[in-house]
Structure formats: C-alpha cells, structure tokens
Amino acid sequence: MHILKQILRSPKLQSIASRAFCTTLNYGSYDKMGINAPLNRKLRMGMVGGGQGSFIGRVHSIAACLDNRAVVTAGALSSNPERSKASAPDYAISEDRAYGSYEDMLDAESKLPDDQRIDFVSITTPNHTHFEVALAAVEAGFNVVCDKPMTFDLAQAETLAKAVEQSDVIFALSHNYTGYPLVRQAREMIASGELGEIQAIRSNYIQGWLRTRLEDSDQKQAAWRTDPTKSGAAGCFGDIATHAYNLGRYMTGLLPDQISCHLKTFEPGRKLDDYGTAVIRYQNGALGTVTASQISHGRENDVSIEIDGTKGALQWRQENPNEMIVRANGQPHKIYTRDPNAPHTTPGAAAACRLPSGHPEGFFEAFANVYASAFDAMVARAEGGPIERVNTIYPNVNDGVEGMYFIQQCVESSKQDAAWLPLKHERARR
Ligand SMILES: NC(=O)c1ccc[n+]([C@@H]2O[C@H](COP(=O)([O-])OP(=O)(O)OC[C@H]3O[C@@H](n4cnc5c(N)ncnc54)[C@H](O)[C@@H]3O)[C@@H](O)[C@H]2O)c1
C-alpha cells in the first residue's frame, strides 16, 4: 500500500510502473510509448487543412496525438484566413500560432528558435493544393505527412520526390490502411513465403455515398472530389482506388508491369469517374484487379483484399479489421485475430497493436501507426542518426509517385478502350 501511494505521487515512478506493467503483459508497442526518446519531448505538428466542417484533418490530429508523441502546435486550417483562425481553438492552437495561410505558417515557424518551431507539417487539404504546400514545407526543411493522392498529377509527384530526396526531411503519405496490424501481419507472412508465390490480388474499395449528384448540394467533400480542377484527372479512382492499389502493393511487394483500365461515370452530368476496374499484370506473372465504386447502394467504406498464393490464400476487410482469414486446400480455414500476444503474430503486427486481443482497434489506431512509424524516423533525423528513407514501414514519397502513375495510366488506358499500358516505375519498391 505504501509503495502504491508513492507511485501515485511520483510522475517518474508512475512512468516506470506503467512501462513495467505493459512489458509484463507484453502489450505490443505500449512499452515504446512515451516522449520520443532520446529526443524526450513531443513533436510539434503544424496542420494545413482541418478547418471547421472538414473531414480528415481531425483524424490526422487525433492519430498524431494518440500515443502522446505529438501536439498540434500550429495550423493554417482553412483556405479562408478568417475561418482558419476561427478553427484554431478546436485544436487548442494558441492565437499566435493560428495562421491565415500555409505560407504565413511556414514563414513564421521557420523564424522561430529550434525549441519552439514545428517539427512537421500535416497536409489534409484537397488534392490540388498538396504539391505547393508539400514542396514549400520540404524546401523550408520541415518533415511532412501528406494525405493521398500525393499531388494533382505525376509531374508534380516526380518533382516533389526529387525535392524530398535532395533534402533530409521525412516524408510520409497517409495510406492509412497500411497501418492495420493484420495488414502488417499479411505483409510479413507473404514476405516470409507462408503463402508461396503470389499469383493473384483482388482489391476493392466500394462506397455508395455518390450514388446521387451530392455535389449539386452543399456537400463540400463531394463538390471538390467531382471537380477535375481540384480532384485531378480521376474521381473515384484518384480518391479511393489508389488506396486499394497501394494495399495490394504494400501487402505483397509485387512489382507492377502493365495496366488496363475501364473507368465509368454512371451519374449523368458528373465530370469524373465514379466507378472503375483495372487489371494489373505484375512482373512475376501475377494478375491483379482493383475495383472501386462510389455508386454502390448501401456500401460504406468497404476496402477489402484477397490474395492467392501457391501455398495459401488470405482475405482481409477493413470494415472488420481485427480479423483475417487464411485458407489452404485440405485444411480448416484459419481466422487470425489481432492479438499482440499470440505466438503466430508477426513482430510488425504485434508492434502495431495498442490493446490486448478482443478490444477492437480501428481506423484511428491504424492511422496512428503510420504516424508512429514516421515519428520514429523524425526522431532519428532530429538526433542525427541514420535513417532509412526508401524501404520504410510507412508509405513514403515513392509510393506517392507510384500512386500518381497508377492514376495517370488508368485514365489513359480507359481513354484508349482499356489498352494495356506500362505500369513499371523506377521508384516502385518491394
Ligand atoms: N487517408 C484517408 O483515408 C483519407 C480520407 C479522406 C480524405 N483524404 C484526403 O484528405 C484530403 C482532404 O479531404 P477531406 O475529405 O478532409 O476534405 P475536406 O473538404 O473535408 O477538408 C479540406 C480542408 O482543407 C481546407 N483547405 C483547402 N485549401 C486550403 C489551403 N490552401 N490552406 C489551408 N486549408 C485549406 C478546407 O478549408 C477544409 O478545411 C484529400 O486529399 C483527400 O483525398 C484521405
């Protein structure tokens, strides 16, 4: 009882006790949580986008701060300077760090002393703005976490990748589905050969929210996503098929070779595709398909993937993310659950868990795992340590280039009645 009282009074003892508790129970990455040792402080986040009424900015702020490793310090939260400043209290951003534009934020933050200025910029704005914000942030020496698709077109993506390469900044892309523990489990099982040679990948991203012309109402998320000047050359395929394609690439590491794609706009008058299917030939001879829809009645956020190998097959669905089915002919079907303590859980999957099995983890936690991997690299950069910038756990600028190449080739192939076009890119990584 005396010891317990002492622990409750002392923050230092509390921290030691909590680490000892978590280590004893082997609660995955819990024992790694803290304040970014050896930096020993929280990373300071400057957010662009995320103003009142927006969607993904709030998710970024929660994901970044989930493990107590970051704090939202500054923001240029809206394209409208007044709304930007008015949104700052929602994130507890102080008045002097609430900026009217991202240019003001980068300029003012660059002039602050090292121990005050932001460490990274999170870009959570519509697609057409990503490039200018990201390039300016990289050139000013700030780490970046950018939402997908990385840029408006491939040329911008390649320019950005070169700028990142020539700098020493950490650049992460929030393909957040890569952060689910069972996605990382699949990746590690495939890499170790458990499924044999991979021969087929079927990935889908099926939604129904744009079944009607929602863009004609006041719905701003629908408005910019269906506007080619803001979304880019593709609608549904730029917005969500890129996630499904990235998921297959992330899980299997198979390198793409060629693509054939059909895009359709089913809602009359809509300016961009709202449905499509792509077939991908991989360099090892495997075949992949990516189907994405925004017009399927009743479908919410149904990202799913099936992978067939010579020794086994797996299936995962993000609407039920804590389960993965693995099958092999002649054997009972296996249901893997997210379980940091199970002997069959791979190290990367265990490290991506925060809770024991049976306590559902979901979208925020997966998003936070992308941030956590990027934070490890940011801490290493701040400490001057060696940093892996190509084969990262988190999706990086090269994956962003690949995503933009995928979009470009889908649109071009579709224009040519699903002609086969190249999909090999020098930046593609296993
Ligand atoms: N990773 C994911 O799962 C996921 C999910 C949804 C959206 N996204 C991506 O996130 C981005 C934003 O999507 P959303 O649905 O949150 O959009 P949104 O329309 O809800 O929010 C965009 C926000 O950015 C602000 N903004 C626009 N231009 C700005 C500028 N120049 N400076 C500062 N703020 C500016 C807007 O005022 C708004 O607050 C898109 O690129 C989208 O593709 C990713």
TrEMBL record:
Keywords in alphabetical order: Oxidoreductase
Gene Ontology molecular-function annotations: nucleotide binding; oxidoreductase activity
InterPro entries found in the cross-reference section: Gfo/Idh/MocA-like_OxRdtase_N (IPR000683), Gfo/Idh/MocA_oxidoreduct (IPR051317), GFO_IDH_MocA-like_dom (IPR055170), NAD(P)-bd_dom_sf (IPR036291)
Residue span(s) of domain Gfo/Idh/MocA-like oxidoreductase N-terminal: 43-173
Pfam families from the UniProt entry: GFO_IDH_MocA, GFO_IDH_MocA_C3
Keyword Oxidoreductase: yes
Domain (GFO/IDH/MocA-like oxidoreductase): residue spans on this chain: 183-314
Assigned EC number: 1.-.-.-
Name recorded for this polypeptide: Putative oxidoreductase YdgJ
Gene that this polypeptide is encoded by: ydgJ
